[in-house]
Amino acid sequence: MSALLTDLYQITMLQTYLDEDMTAPAVFELFVRKLPAQRNFLVAAGMEQVLRFLETFSFSEAELAWLREHGNFSSRVLEHLRTLRFKGDVDAMPEGTVFFADEPIIRITAPLPQAQLMESRLLNLAHFETLIASKAARAVLAASGRRLVDFGMRRAHGAEAALLAARAAYLAGFDGTATAEAGRRFGIPVFGTMAHSFVQAHASEQAAFEAFARVRPNRPTFLVDTYDTEAAVAKLIDVAPALACDGIAIGGVRLDSGDLAAHAKAVRGLLDAAGLKDVTIFASGNLDEHRIAALLADAAPIDGFGVGTALDTSSDVPAIDAVYKLQSYAGVARRKRSEGKATWPGIKQVVRHLGNNGCIERDVVQLEVEPRDGEALLRPCMRGGRRVGAAPTLEESRAYHTRQMALLPAALRVLQPAREAYRVDISPGLRTLAREVDAAVS
Question: Which of 27, 257, 337, 438 has the most Cβ atoms closer than 10 angstroms to its Cβ?
Fold first, then answer.
């Protein structure tokens, strides 16, 4: 991805810092100011993409030529950009970590011009995957163990968004995606059924079903709502013996429209009466976690769900208040004090404590140098621009997230807003530092 995928002012800030010789170490932290009203927790994601961006960051000659022509940057700055590589340190929460407001999920320590320049793309990557993983985790809670597949590519906001949404959803517990490139790039299981146009293009539904089964003979799933759902299932039942003679067993049927609960119940009855009790029912069509929960509350016999638009756009919460702020420069704590946007100063750590029931009970945002007796969530990822140890695989991060969700208190594992927010304490040392920084500025 181009190094110019940034806000122009980031490069302007770099030039100004260089002109003023302000190149001492700076610490920036990426965090969320407050949780949306519809979210009881968030899921940290996108760290692998952030680290890959940092370790491969560079300007091409074509990009430098564009800046020379359009950016009004000095030759000194352009030469600096030509050789610029990220040489800083990164500490971050592991992907899949459940987190809350005011908790840094990524900490960057680097010379001020470098740390500033990375802001826009870091937020772009971490914000989006965190947004989608947090939405997907809710669907996983609602589905209660049933199969979930990402169907959202066609409504995603661009190609990169579609791929990273598939990745974030899988990290958060989805079983796979319909996006083929996400399977190739990330190793995510890929699922697919058939198109309505395929049924329409054939002279009859029976002909379409038979043709599809012979092309995809390994327990195929059939789309049965092109015309009349229950009638289509009856036709599929009629062709089942002929398919069975050829060694083809029907794997499932997919419902995509209408009253999904009513159709699922009727279809289940037809299949069971025909002795096809092992044929699964998969539902799609403008689903989200709330519709999934409602379907299951209605005892709809649905074995899996395809979630598309609502997932890949996080339609109920299309953005979260993620920010990247300077917390220390040249060894001195810094603090933003804007109304409604004040930050806690200094280099911080998030320490998590478990309750007697084994669930997470409270977090403490404290200074890195303060003593701690819980689990430190920010962990070394890069030192001097190089990775610390091997990167976890997506499967490892997915398993870690599963363990994280198991620690989540029952009061937060609900779709409606929790009665009480999760407890996040600000340490006494951090509060004292904030007062000292305020006094010094005043």
Answer: 27
Bridge-based pairing of strands 304-307 and 89-92 is unpaired
275: which 2 tokens? Answer: 């002795």
- Using CB atoms within 10 A of its CB, is residue 71 exposed (0-12), middle (13-18) or buried (19+)? middle
Count CB-CB contacts under 10 A for residue 238.
12
| Closest-CA residue to 79 (of 54, 61, 55) | 61
**399-441: pLDDT as tens digits:** 999 999 999 999 999 999 999 999 999 999 999 999 999 998 8
User: Phi and psi at residue 410, in whole multiples of 5°?
Assistant: -55, -35
Which is it for strands 106-111 and 25-32: parallel, antiparallel or unpaired?
antiparallel
Strand partners, 324: 30
Domains of the chain: 8-132+317-441 (3.20.140.10), 193-283 (3.20.20.70)
* DSSP H or E stretch at residue 289: helix 289-297
Residues with Cβ within 8 Å of residue 403, at least 6 apart in sequence: none
Half-sphere exposure of 26 (CA within 13 A, CB side): 20
Helix (H, G, I), strand (E, B) or coil at 246: coil
- Tens digits of residue pLDDT in 113-162: 999 999 999 999 999 999 999 999 999 999 999 999 999 999 999 999 99
Q: How far apart are CA 163 and CA 153, in angstroms?
A: 8
Q: Of 134, 103, 32, 35, whose CA–CA distance to 421 is shortest?
A: 35
Characterize the bridge pairing of strands 252-255 and 221-223: parallel
Handedness of CA 378, 380, 384, 387 (dihedral sign): negative
Residue 335 in tokens: 């603090």
> Containing H/E element for 386?
strand 386-387
99: its two tokens:
């987190």
Name the H helices within 47-179. 47-56, 61-70, 75-83, 112-117, 119-143, 159-171
For residue 354, list its beta bridge partners.
360
Residue 350 near residue 103, CB atoms below 8 Å: yes
The radius of gyration of the chain's CA atoms, rounded to the nearest angstrom, is 26
Instruction: Determine the angle formed by the axes of helices 61-70 and 75-83, rounding to 10 degrees.
Output: 160
Q: Which two tokens stand for residue 130?
A: 């965190």
Cα 359 to the chain's mean position, in Å?
23
pTM of the model: 0.96
